[in-house]
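Pipeline run #58 for the internal structure catalog. This entry was flagged by the ingest filter as a single-chain record with no existing model, so it goes straight to prediction. Upstream metadata was stripped on purpose; only the residue string is passed forward. Reviewer on rotation: M.T. Logging verbosity set to normal.
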Amino acid sequence: MTSSLTAPLSTQSLASAGPLRPSTVAETGLDLLYLADLLSKQLYEHGVLDLHRLSRGSALAGPIIEEICHFLRDEGRAEVRGVGEYGALRFGLTDRGRAAALEALSRDGYGGMAPVPLEDYARLTTQQAMSAVGIDRQRVHEAFADTVIPPERLDQLGPALHSGRAMFIYGDAGTGKSFIARRLSRLLPGEVLVPHAILVAGKALRCFDPAVHEPLAASDDSPLARLYLEQGHDPRYVRCRRPCVVTGGELTLDMLEVQYDPATRIHHAPVQLRANNGMLVIDDLGRQRMQPLELFNRWIVPLEERHDYLALSNGQHFQVPFDVALVLSTNLDPLQLADPAFLRRIGYKIHFEPLERVDYLTIWQQECGKQGVAFDEGVVNFLVDEWHARFAVPLLPCHPRDLLGLALDYLRYQGLGHEQLSRQALEWAWQNYFGELGGPEGEAS
């Protein structure tokens, strides 16, 4: 079958101009019988639909919808039920058509936008690879201009994300690893096309996830233009910002495999496939309900070969690209989590350390501004010299936010004005945050 994908383009032009919208069944890369079953499912669910609604519901151009509907009529599976919007014919299923639709639903419950062939998806993912776009130093430092982070650490994070290779971010709890890891999404360049679904061995694998993918504004075409438009990018793909998927202690090995819902008979893409052409952050590594070694063994092949192996519910195996900037964040020692074979595949190991005094005060000032509290450098210096120093508590980025929040809770409870932070409120916050011994048991990561 022919493919609608064009020659490689830049990421920006690819997402805005291609792949071209197919104008014939052959150009979709899908079989006519499959498309007939897809439209039958939609007609079974909604009853009677005109050509416009069938086009919008399947993301297929008008000429393709007409060809499929003619086939369904010739097969005795559908019949004309009058005229609808803009004079378009309305179609409904016959008894034979309803029986065929039920049979199709028993094989595969997906009845949404027409999927794209796996081969087309793999080719497009390669064309949209982050490593083909790159990130320069100026952009990295501009993106973190409002963030207190040492420049030398930015010059570690930037090349890591630029390369698309995996990175290990580690350090003590509270050193800002999770905060910075999530903020790396600011650096994801350009936009990408994400398919609504991918066709694998005759079954649709739902890929687009509104909880993960952020669509960009679509053109405001009229229904008639959408129906007969034969140019522009294929609407089976959604123009999105590069995805950033964040998962933590809830991650299980099952989430890294195709998810099958037996109630709906629909296959859903695993977390790393939804993150393709973007970033996947695994936070609090070592806190999952599985041993880290199990996770690392699962990632060995994708990290080394840049592709992954998955399986459908019927056991059908298939290969997909693995173009994911993998960020592993942990407050545990990487040498205790992973063996040398896995660490070798992690291109970057970036250590987060406690703050210098000047950076600590800067974050305090920022947090005071957010909370509408006057910044008193003397009070904060007292905190550093009398409490941090006495109990040997390192200066961590999480402390200003957490301690200030507790101090404001105290002031509001006492019915006192919170525009000015008092030393008494700050001492109360310290005792409740760390405990009476002043130990850092309450640190946040």
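catalog note: Residues 31-113 form a domain with the Arc Repressor Mutant, subunit A fold (CATH 1.10.10.10).
catalog note: The chain has three domains: 31-113, 126-352, 357-442.
status: ready for reviewer M.T.
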